[in-house]
Design a protein that fits this description.
The complex is a heterodimer of chains A (about 950) and B (about 80). With about 950 residues, chain A is of the alpha/beta class. In chain A, helix 13 crosses helix 17. Classes of the chains: A alpha/beta (about 950), B mainly alpha (about 80).
Chain lengths: ~950, ~80
Amino acid sequence: MGYERQADFGTPEVRSDTQVTCTIDGRAVTVPAGTTVMRAAALTGGAIPKLCATDNVKQFGSCRMCLVEIDGMRGTPASCTTPVAEGMSVHTQTPRLQKLRKGVMELYISDHPLDCLTCSANNDCELQDTAAQVGLRDVRYGYAGENHLDQPADTSNPYFDFDPSKCIVCSRCVRACEEVQGTFALTIDGRGFGSKVSAGLASDSFLSSECVSCGACVQACPTATLQEKAVKEIGKPERAVVTTCAYCGVGCTFRAEMRGEQLVRMVPWKDGKANRGHSCVKGRFAWGYAQHQDRILKPMIRSSIDEPWREVSWEEALGHTARELKRISEKYGRQALGGITSSRCTNEETFLVQKLIRAGFGNNNVDTCARVCHSPTGYGLKTTFGTSAGTQDFDSVEDSDVILVIGANPTDGHPVFGSRMKKRLRQGAKLIVIDPRRTDLVRSPHVAADYHLPLRPGTNVAVLTALAHVIVTEGLADEAFVRARCDWDEYRHWADFVSDARHSPEFLEPVTGVPAEALRGAARLFATGGNGAIYYGLGVTEHSQGSSTVMAIANLAMATGNIGRRGVGVNPLRGQNNVQGACDMGSFPHELSGYRHVSDAGARALFEAEWGVKIDPEPGLRIPNMLDAATDGVFKALYIQGEDILQSDPDTKHVSAGLAAMECVIVHDLFLNETANYAHVFLPGSSFLEKNGTFTNAERRIQPVRKVMEPLNGYEDWQVTQELARAIGLDWNYTHPSEIMDEIARLTPTFSGVNYARLDAEGSLQWPVNAAAPDGSPIMHVDGFVRGKGKFVVTDYVPTDERTGPRFPLLLTTGRILSHYNVGAQTRRTANVAWHPEDLLEMHPTDAENRGVKSGDWVRLASRAGETTLRVTVTDRVAPGVVYTTFHHPATQANVVTTDYSDWATNCPEYKVTAVQVTPSNGPTDWQEGYEELTRRSRRIEGGAMEAAE
Amino acid sequence: MSSHTPEKLAYMVNQIARNLALDPDPVGMVAQHIQDFWTPRMKHMAFALDGARLDPVVREALARLAGQYGAAAAS
């Protein structure tokens, strides 16, 4: 499409069962009761002039620009605050209104710089448009009076500037910060003529304030007061393409606004059904990595990881790779080969990688990064409900009465959904947070948890069983729901189990650290407070009992009748953009697409007929098993698309030993990542801006990813995989990803109604999309569980074998922060490092004092697996005995410390519980120094400059 | 360094059994889990494990599974 500003109806949409008809300038319009005159007029195509109104925030009624006349009503009411009434007759263009509007506009312009031709918002400015709309030709007051034109700009934020000289104090930015983002970082400071938008305290700049750089204020600003730096530098966009963000599992829809082949800005799309027009600092601003100088654009090979890389043609790289794969297969057998798909790549790319392995390598040795995040979700929800996915759409939270968040930090990890959740909480929903840390949700402006249960890391199952104990023993279970929807005998077996006195909050308090009375209160609130919704993240799954915890959550939802309608449900918050999709596409070594086990002869027959090969009926290797098999000497070649397992997977020494034992490691990525230190072939990847395809977000929403610029390396990732497949002898001839989706739809019952034409027409589809659900499935298990009867599973608490003791007395838990994403390969190559330049270790004041360390000190963090050094920040966000850090920086390599303990059912690593000791340190560990040297040597490129260091 | 050592495989399969101990059919569940998620090589290595390392439920499950693969589980 060309460049047009997104439609703005002035005030938010209203939901009502009652419709009202009125006439506006003689045109009849029917709208939901409660709709404003301004919105109704906009819906008829007759835009009323406005400045302080925008449809992302509630009406404010301050600018006096949108006045109208209404038959039978005195005066000139503001159309933004006047609801339509049945039979109302509105006039939006009269001589009286024109005179009034022009007079108001004169006042605004008398205190506004007249630099339109050199202004960055020229021809994209609502103030300019409104002046034209009201026919302003002169300003009777002149421009010499007292004004704000000399106020200095605040350029501290790396992504946008604040220029108060251009501000009309409409408060749209302040209201967006409050209503859309929920951070309350902005305010109007001063009174009357001295009124001024202010970030934080008077001494704050935007960068030092609590502003989280979500961009809502910039989007709301009708002038150039809040303006993207990129627009100032590049100019106004000239075309826009709607696409899907490549960061977290929320799956925000954006308009990529372009000037030629140059991306100017990413603006959240108001029609995006996941984000509803909102964004976070990553998706909105942190896209600079896509054109970063560290991008590798030419294929490279080397025969040994001790040698420098050699740039070669695509033909040579693919031919060499194919010969290596053939040699290894002949020498060691076909089971010596495997691959890893990426949750950052599209469904189509992921599907092709697993097809390459199953049809080309001849085995099921394919796994995906969901192994280390949400594989327990797949196991647990398939076991209990019958489907490996969350039950709700994001809109569902608008009908929740009690929100239970366990092991998730949505304001940092899933910020756009976190804002929607906070909005519902400000409207009065109750909140229970189960987390070892006092996350922002526990207490932030206008949001406070009714219960925060600060459990000891590793005791999720015990806490959930204790909650169930209270609900069952106090007669709070919804037995009518259970009788109708679940297996009653299994329920009784489970209810007897949880009712045992050894599962009471009082008995378990010494184990969990959670005060019994608070836990009882939380259980009663969840069972009796109305619609109860559970949201969880990796604090649930990344444990030795990750799968048990997911099943315990499902038990709790079924026992309280909180499944199958809006406002309730079990909602895994997915970490990466396409975790759900990668799992759907058959990336696990035991499943074909659509979660059908490889031992299912009927399912295999479908694929065998389509692909013309036999499918191995036995499961393949999981990632940790691949590494084990490599050190055993029986696994020799690995194709890794878009993942950095050396940094993201646990027990780094185990990963590096496995990779070092292989003879052909193929890394297909944007950058020479940490895993590439051990690679023999590097295939350049394409960014999400350079490809077509689809991502599937946490609400099972399949959304288009659209190419907005040509791939810098010459090929989209699916094309590279196709060429590799052809090089090893497969006759693949896809000409567009839509053909891959058509194949997915033919082979996957839950996708049978999905195609690109429908995605283009409808924007997105939520699977299942098939004959039984032709329009998709926003809410699952509405009339019955996919598996038939909901299954209660007894989940006994089995303590982890990772124990604290005299040598390692503290518990380390790891996580992420708002400004960085996963291993940081993308966000570290953006200005987001302004907020988080290094990984820090959070430590409670008592533990810090006992060790003689203070904020900013370097410390040695040691576990049974390894040790690293990093700096400390002392905070009571963590409990005594618990320390916390992130894994965004390779210089820290937090996973040197984590162990290879894992979930019993899925081998998802136990990142969240590692026994550690912390001591003062003077410098990096031997391992860190050795790794730095390895990285330096490994990134040499023959005849070229040293690859830029991380 | 970690590999598919007998110690590690024994740990893995015993961990599965500990978490399925209260299932109405723990032997069947452990056998099914190994059947569904372990590669043939890992299964055969498990069949060869020293039974003394193993939970009784695991021993029975592996014996049941070994028959399907034409192998004999160590006792």
